[in-house]
Amino acid sequence: MKVNVDAPAKINLFLDIRGKRSDGYHIVSMVMQSISLCDEITVSRTDDGDIKIVCSDENIPLDETNTVYKAFELFFKETEKENKGIEIKIKKNIPTEAGLGGGSTDAAAVLHALNKLYDTELSRKELAEIGAEIGADVPFCVYGGTMSASGIGTILSPLPDLPECYLVIVKPNIGVCTKDAYEKSDSPEFSAIKGMDKITESICEANIKSVAKHLYNKFEVVMALPEVEKIKQIMLDCGALGATMTGSGSAVFGIFDNDNMRDDCAKRLDDDYEYVYKAEPVSEVFFG
Predict the structure, then answer these.
(1) 8-state DSSP, 188
(2) Dihedral of CA 250/55/286/152: which sign?
(3) Is residue 257 annotated as part of the catalytic site, yes or no?
(4) What is the CATH number of domain 2-158?
(5) What is 166-279's CATH superfamily?
(6) Strand 2-20 to strand 26-45: parallel, antiparallel, or no bridges (unpaired)?
(7) Per-residue confidence band for 286, with pLDDT thresholds at 50, 70 and 90
(8) DSSP string, 69-95
(9) Alpha-carbon distance 214 to 207, whole Å?
(10) Are 128 and 221 in contact (CB under 8 A)?
(11) pLDDT value, residue 73
(12) Is 237 a catalytic residue?
C-alpha cells in the first residue's frame, strides 16, 4: 500500500525577529503562505522491516538528519504503531537553502501520509504537535494556507486567503546558512522591531496591493545580499507590486496582479538564473 502526497513550499510575506529566549530559540513574528510549488512524496509500506529514503536530489542526506526520517521516527514513537517497513520517495522540486521550507514541508507531508497509511486518524493539531519536535516551520506546513506565527514560529493563527495573485520565485546561485543569519540578527544594530499589523489588516481587507506594499523580511535587511536586491529590482521593473526574500534566503519572490506580466518577468529572469519558478498561493493544502 502507498500514499502519494504533495508537499507545498511556503513563502514569508512578513518575518521579524523580536528577540532571543534563554534557551537559544528566537522569538519571531511571521506571516506565512503556502504556494503551488511542491515536492512530491510517496510513502509505501514494504513489510521488510526497514526504513528506506530515496531522493531525486543526490545532495539531500538520507540518514537520521533528514527531516522525513525524523518525522517517521516520531510518528511511530507517538502512535506506538509497529513499523513493519517503510519506503519514502522524494521528488525534489523545491530548491534547497532557499527559505522555501522544503525540508519542513516534506516532513509534514510524511506525517500526513503515515497517518493515512496506518489509519491513526490523528487530527492536524496532533500532527502539528509532532511536527513541532522536528522544526519550527513544520506545524505551519501541516496546516498550510495563510497564517500568522509567533513565539518560535509554532503559535499559529489562521488568516483569510490571499486574494488572487501570481508569483515569481527565483533562487540565486548563493545559499544562506540559517544559523549564521540568526546569529547576525542578534547584533544590536538590528534590534528595531517592526509590527505586522498593516500586512495582516491588508490580508483581511483582501487588498493585494497593500499586502505587497507591506512585505518585510528582517533577514533580508540583516544579510544585505546584492544579488537579492538585483532580483527584486528586476521584478519591480517588470511590474511586481512588491518583492522580498523569503525565510533566511536566498530565494526571492515577487507578487503580481497580472499573470501575463508575471510570465514576462519569469522569462526575463530565466536568462540569468537557473532556478526560476511560477506559482500561485494555495488556500488549502491537499494531501494525496
Answers:
(1) G
(2) negative
(3) no
(4) 3.30.230.10
(5) GHMP kinase, C-terminal domain (3.30.70.890)
(6) antiparallel
(7) low
(8) HHHHHHHHHHH------EEEEEE--SP
(9) 11
(10) no
(11) 94
(12) no
272/42 Cα distance (integer angstroms): 33
Per-domain boundaries in the chain? 2-158, 166-279
pTM of the complete model beyond 0.85 = yes
Question: Given 10, 171, 218, 232, which residue is catalytic?
Answer: 10
Question: From CA 256, how far away is CA 240, in angstroms rounded?
Answer: 5
For residue 165, give the nearest of 8, 283, 286 by alpha carbon. Answer: 283
* Pick from 82, 87, 4, 83: nearest CA to 38: 4
Q: Count Cα neighbours of 95 within 13 Å in the Cβ-side half-sphere.
A: 23
Q: Measured between alpha carbons, how far is 252 from 164 in angstroms, rounded to an integer?
A: 19
- Catalytic residue, chosen from 6, 106, 137, 194, is 137
Q: What is the pLDDT of residues 167-178, one digit of tens each?
A: 999 999 887 777
